[in-house]
Write a structure and sequence with these properties.
- This protein is mainly α.
- It contains four helices and no strands.
- The two termini are about 25 Å apart.
- The model has no long low-confidence stretch (mean pLDDT about 95).
Amino acid sequence: MTFLTGLLVFLHLVGAAIIVGTWIYTMKRPTVSPGQFHASLLSLVTGLLLVAIHEMGDGDVNHGKIAVKLLVALAVAVAAFVGQRRTRRGEPVSTGLAHAVGGFALINMAVATLW
């Protein structure tokens, strides 16, 4: 179970790194890539699996923190979905939407580490 938890944490961090890294890379011309959407789903699913593993074990889960992180992760996923659909159609992606994807992901990382 320790290996599985470690693997899920690793994948969770990789997803967050892809979202924030792509956001920083495209800072001059803000856009949302399909990779950011897929990375948001990766982080969302691995986060839910991590909570499930801790709930099944003897780990103490802070449900308030998990609720906040889930809401922010859903906001990232929805914004990334809308942005990547616009990118695929060749439509312009608003600066606010592109920054929402990266900014919310960064906020979620801050909640995870500072709360």
